[in-house]
Amino acid sequence: VGFQGALGAFSEEAVRALVPEGEPIPRQSFQEVVRAVESGEDNAGVVPIENTLAGTVAESYEVLAESELFVIREIAIPIRHCLLGVPGATLGGVLEARSHPVALSQCREFFASRPEVRPHAVYDTAGAAEEVAAAGDLSLAAIASEGAGKRYGLDLLQGDLQDRDDNQTRFFLIVREAHDFEPSELLKTALVAELENRPGALHELLGIFASRSLDLTHITSRPATSPWTYRFLLEFRHSRINDGAMATEAASELCARLRVLGTFPAWQPKSPQADEVTGLGSEG
User: Fold this and answer.
1) Is residue 197 a contact partner of residue 205, using CB atoms and an 8 Å limit?
2) Annotation says 263 is catalytic
3) pTM of the model
4) Which of 50, 65, 209, 213 has a 20 to 30 Å separation from 12 between CA atoms?
């Protein structure tokens, strides 16, 4: 199961939660995750899709929109960021903190409280921990999971750097073919819609879900393939598969292009104690 990042990233934790029997395979980018699944090199992939602090992980949605893969499951896991340094490093001696850009954006209050610490973006949280361990510089630190620190032999300098304690990231499990699921489960359908540029087009699209009393749980706009045109990323929940199919069919009649990313069991939140992540983690 491919994921973006190094071993010890929050996405690896999502892989282990979604596919306990799978072998996590690190990939450099979201595009590489998708290509490995499309080619059959990997049986499945896991990508982060949304964070409660940073919002939509737009790159994941966009590579999925251009692929032919399907979403078959989702999960949300708590994200607790730690400041990690090489043995001998101190909190007061840190001048640069490295991490994934999304992780850095979740720790704004930490950087505001320590203006001497420069944020430095790298491709992954666990990759940052690996870099800091290799550099051996007392002034460098990584922002990653506590598990990543243990994996790469780093000391915990400060825990819970995230701006809110309820920080979470939602992940999709993606495969080449759609899977069957229990019809009794609460379902979710994810769509990518491109509309004609005319007055009321978005209003009409959203009305399809409102008129059917369907819960629209996510909507984001992103640039489409032509200048000043946009695509909308939508997710809605439904209890019967026919409800989702009928809404999707009605939406397709309004759209210049509609891509169904998948219909899958909607993730149901558990108690914070049941979902606590303390080991290896992964941010995409």
Assistant:
1) no
2) no
3) 0.86
4) 65
